[in-house]
Amino acid sequence: MRKQNKIVLWSVYFDSSKTRNEGRRVSKKLAVSSPKLEELQIAAKKLGLQSEAMFDSAHPSSPMRKTGLLIIPKTESKGKTLKNIAKALSSLR
User: Fold this and answer.
1) pLDDT tens per residue across span 4-15
2) 6-92 has which fold?
3) 49 in Cβ contact with 73 (< 8 Å)
4) Strands of 52-54's sheet, edge to edge?
5) Residue 26 class from Cβ within 10 Å (0-12 exposed, 13-18 middle, 19+ buried)?
6) CB 23 within 8 A of CB 12
């Protein structure tokens, strides 16, 4: 699902209980346990990013778990965006 000038974020990217092979994209230090899609939306809003949530979507590695996804505009590289959202997410907790 490639979107032009958009970044797709899955909650598994920020889950500290997952390994990198299972889909985590941020370091263990920045990851949180069982992040919710609503928390990702709040973190994105805190950074000034408009977000669009799709609650009925499942990550390709776990098609039975409908965790949802978040689509945000691409303002910088995906890696930098993930790191910034992870920092905002950990400050929420």
Assistant:
1) 899 999 999 999
2) Phenylalanyl-tRNA Synthetase; Chain B, domain 1 (3.30.56)
3) yes
4) 6-10, 69-73, 52-54
5) buried
6) yes
Query: Taking the mean position of all CA atoms in its chain, how far away is CA 62?
Result: 15
Per-residue pLDDT reduced to its tens digit, 35-45 = 999 999 999 99
User: How far is the C-alpha of 15 from the C-alpha of 30, rounded, in Å?
Assistant: 9
Answer whether residue 2 shows pLDDT above 70. no
Q: Which amino acid is at 38?
A: E
Total length of the chain:
93
Provide the β-strand partners of residue 32.
Answer: 15
Residue 82, SS3? Answer: helix
70 pairs with which residues across the strands? 9, 53
Tokens of 69: 């996804």
Residue 50's pLDDT is what?
Answer: 94
